[in-house]
Automatic annotation (TrEMBL):
It comes from Cryobacterium glucosi. The keyword Hydrolase applies. The keyword DNA damage applies. Belongs to the Nth/MutY family. It holds the Pfam family HhH-GPD. Its cofactor is [4Fe-4S] cluster. Keywords: DNA damage, DNA repair, Glycosidase, Hydrolase, Iron, Iron-sulfur, Metal-binding. This is A/G-specific adenine glycosylase.
DNA sequence: GAACCGTGGTG
DNA sequence: TCACCAAGGTT
């Protein structure tokens, strides 16, 4: 849920989710469409599908227990390098560098003296964090969490609160006089309004809103451009977020 | 490596 | 008003 999504927006959904499905087996026992429905408007609904798939994998292949090993976690659907390490470090207390967008920014500023991190690079980012990580297992877990928390609450992307920062005295960016970012530009995020993403979201919201099949005629009312509707619908079908239940009618995945 | 994938808060 | 961005992952 936290992938590319602010913590404050996740928390209520997480609590409701864990009340309904306390264990991987509980989630694995319901159709994937139920996960997509409960995901509501958290965004990136493929994550709901992937989380359900991971719950099935954990239930069938790992005795219903979330794996501890980073290499095993990486085999689960929707678990990438960040999430695998975060689970191993935060849930199980293992010593691994955990690097998210907040940590990257803290290292860029405090250590490298730059206003923004370079675009993410698994090798570089892990090496940089590894060089900072305490040797002690529990201290390493605290350090991972502390770096993320500092980036999320103090060393923020816009308007960092340097006056409140416990690392201000040793911050290389501050010492250098807050130079502007010189490095590679990050790829600009496309506009959402009018995009295929928005149309996908409209169709999926319609599918979530009812337990009856949604027809082509109903879908046609959601957006004026038929070509965009077609692209969005076929994308949802190929992603498994929607299934065709009869000619010209669709629902959330139910198997 | 780059495009793609949602939604909402913020300044 | 709108660009920016948020505990990334997959193809």
């Amino acid at each position: 849920m936290l992938q590319q999504t602010p913590v404050t927006r996740v928390i209520p959904h997480l609590e409701a989710w864990l009340t309904r499905w306390p264990t991987p087996a509980d989630l694995a026992a319901v159709p994937p469409g139920e996960a997509v429905r409960a995901w509501a408007t958290l965004g990136y609904p493929r994550r709901a599908l992937w989380l359900h798939a991971a719950a099935v994998e954990i239930t069938e292949n790992h005795g219903g227990i979330v794996p501890q090993d980073v290499g095993v976690l990486l085999t689960l659907t929707g678990i990438g390098d960040y999430t695998a390490r975060a689970v191993a470090a935060f849930a199980y207390g293992h010593r691994h560098p955990v690097v998210d967008t907040n940590t990257r920014r803290v290292i860029a500023r405090c250590v490298a003296g730059q206003a923004e991190p370079a675009p993410p690079s698994r090798t570089r980012d892990l090496a940089a964090m590894n060089a900072l990580l305490p040797a002690d297992v529990r201290a390493a877990a605290v350090f991972n969490a502390g770096a993320m928390e500092l980036g999320a609450l103090v060393c923020t992307s816009a308007r960092p609160r340097c006056a409140d920062c416990p690392l201000a005295a040793l911050c290389a960016w501050r010492a250098a006089g807050y130079p502007e970012y010189q490095g590679q530009k990050k790829t600009v995020q496309k506009k959402f309004a009018g995009s295929d993403r928005q149309v996908r979201g409209l169709i999926l919201a319609e599918l979530r809103s009812t337990r009856h099949p949604v027809t082509d005629a109903e879908i046609a009312t959601l957006w004026p451009d038929p070509a965009q509707l077609g692209r969005a619908l076929s994308g949802l079908l190929s992603d498994g977020l929607a299934v065709r239940v009869a000619a010209g009618s669709y629902s959330l995945p139910h198997e």
